[in-house]
Amino acid sequence: MLQINGRAGIVNHTDGFPVGVFTFGFADRYIQSIFAVVNPEKLRSIQPSIE
Questions:
Q1: How many C-alpha atoms does 37 have within 13 Å on its Cβ side?
Q2: Residue 1 has pLDDT above 90, yes or no
Q3: 51: which of 12, 14, 19, 35 lies 20 to 30 Å off by Cα?
Q4: Distance of alpha carbon 18 from its chain centroid, rounded?
Q5: How far is 20 from 37, CA to CA, in rounded Å?
Q6: What is the reported pLDDT for 47?
Q7: What are phi and psi of 28, to 5 degrees?
Q8: Whole-structure pTM value
Q9: What confidence tens digit (pLDDT) does each residue in 9-46 have?
Q10: Rounded to the nearest 5 degrees, what angle is found at the Cα of 5, between the Cα atoms of 1 and 28?
């Protein structure tokens, strides 16, 4: 779990490159909302994973 734009989130990688970012909004310790970004233009600033 990462901190992304002030929210808890995860980055989904395929072949080492980011293909999606998911962030979560919480209320009373429960997930209230999930936000997804899959626009390649917006994902360019995310570093590829090194595995």
A1: 16
A2: no
A3: 35
A4: 9
A5: 6
A6: 81
A7: 55, 45
A8: 0.79
A9: 999 999 999 999 999 999 999 999 999 999 999 999 88
A10: 65
**Token pair listed for 36:** 């997804």
Q: What angle do CA 11, 16, 22 make, to 5 degrees?
A: 10
Higher pLDDT among residues 50 and 45, named by residue? 45
Q: How far apart are CA 1 and CA 33, in angstroms?
A: 16
What tokens appear for 48 in the block? Answer: 């590829």
Is there a contact between 34 and 23 (Cβ–Cβ < 8 Å)? Answer: yes
| Structure-block tokens of residue 1 | 């779990």
Q: What are the backbone dihedrals phi and psi of residue 10, each rounded to the nearest 5 degrees, phi first?
A: -135, 155
